Amino acid sequence: MMALKPLHPGPSLPDSAGWENEIMNLSETLIGRARDIAPMVASAAYDTDRNRYVSSDVIDACLDAQLFEILVPKVYGGHELNYSTMASVVYEFARHCVSTAWVVSFYIGHNYLHALWPKGFQDEAFAKGPCSFTPGTIAPNFRLTPVDGGFIANGLSQWNSGSARADWFLNSGLVMVDGKPQGAKAFMVPVADVEVIDNWDMAGMRGTSSGDARLTDVFVPMHRVVDVSDLLEGTTPGAQLHANRIYGLPVLPFVFGETMPVMVGAYRGAAEAFQRLTEERYTTFTSSKVQDKQTAQIRIGKGLAGASVAEVLLRDYMNLLDTADPQDLRPIARRAEIRARIGMVSDYVKTGIDDLMLGAGGGAYRNTSPLQRFSRDMNVLRVHGFLDTETAAENLGRVTLNLPPNCPL
After folding, report:
1. Which of 101, 123, 226, 248 lies most in the core, judged by the most C-beta atoms within 10 Å?
2. Contacting residues for 134 by C-beta, under 8 A, at least 6 apart
3. Which of 33, 24, 18, 22 is nearest to 5 (CA)?
4. Nearest of 328, 399, 406, 376 to residue 99 by alpha carbon
5. Rounded to an integer, what distance in angstroms lies between the CA atom of residue 102 and that of residue 270?
6. pLDDT tens digit string along 8-39?
7. CATH number of the CATH domain containing 90
């Protein structure tokens, strides 16, 4: 297996070779720590799936390894590195447990989102250290009523990945005045204000603790609020506060980037699991080794090559997020193309893993088999709102035909 390495250590500066080497060394150190934690992730994968959440031991190991602050500004004690480092860390976990990789990716990514909010919230979020745990979504599930100094929030949200461990919750809602929507706001609330509902029971992505969250008459002060339009455009308060270009990226290309290494790592993990299973299997009636069958050999080859192709696509996306001028990602057509690209990756990975399952035999469907977890998880991710290929492709077509999009871009 080819190890993923960050392509770009950060924004280039004049005469900065020493600085770039320092950043690259730190990036490699953090990726190495993730590889050291990966066996723990693998051994816990069955229990993660069964228990419906990532164990505290795994999260604490990532916390001790300083993985969650990869994209936190240095002014708050973070590493302020790049997307490549984040993606490489997440990829190492996804090869063993998709649920763990998903939760870790969102914890890292949402610490990045903290840096896009007004300084008052950043001071709160990073008051106890350079990271905090923030599940949540930016789907507009809540009703926001304007009051002096902020809003009153009411509503229920779903798909709050990582809600088993939380300091804050990320939310979004429509501002309602006289019963009419007046724009969308994203906002943060402390976990003490949230009714966390433990109702996550799914066929796949079972270990992500993505339960519901209810807010009832919760006051949200203005320093915890951001215009959704500013997030989409990359013109948030944090973009004005922090000089590093990464904080000026439109948010959805970054959010898609949270999912990309999860899917690609899952393909590599499934291909390796299928190879191990094939090497161990004997046919039921003739007791011949399955690895001697041409069809098994073809599937191994296709799986390993397919995972390598997916890794090339991930590297290309790393390069995009690490080098693109934020201005170049702001046109709606560019963002539509990115969303469609990520949707196609989800289709590609799901189809590749499904093909491996066809040749894996009945034993691969035992709950103890990692291969069936990869299959179930990718079948659920394939229909995720941000990864659905039909929606993404439709909107790229609409934008290309000069029609307005009908989903967030």
Report:
1. 101
2. 107, 110, 111, 113, 114, 125, 162, 166, 167, 168, 169, 170, 188
3. 24
4. 376
5. 16
6. 333 333 444 565 677 789 999 999 999 999 99
7. 1.10.540.10
What percent of the chain shows pLDDT beyond 70?
A: 95
Do 254 and 382 belong to one domain?
A: yes
CATH classification at residue 192: 2.40.110.10
Residue 154: both structure tokens together: 């009411």
Domain boundary among 132, 167, 201: 132
Q: Is residue 1 part of a domain?
A: no
Environment class of residue 324 by beta-carbon count within 10 Å: exposed (0-12), middle (13-18) or buried (19+)? middle
Q: Could you count the other beta carbons within 10 Å of the beta carbon of residue 280?
A: 11
- Grouping H, G, I as helix, E, B as strand and the rest as coil, residue 142 is strand
Q: Single out the residue of 42, 146, 30 nearest to residue 100, CA to CA.
A: 42
Shared domain for 209 and 311, answered yes or no, is no
Q: Confirm if 210 and 161 have CB atoms less than 8 A apart.
A: yes
Which amino acid is residue 382, in one-letter code? R
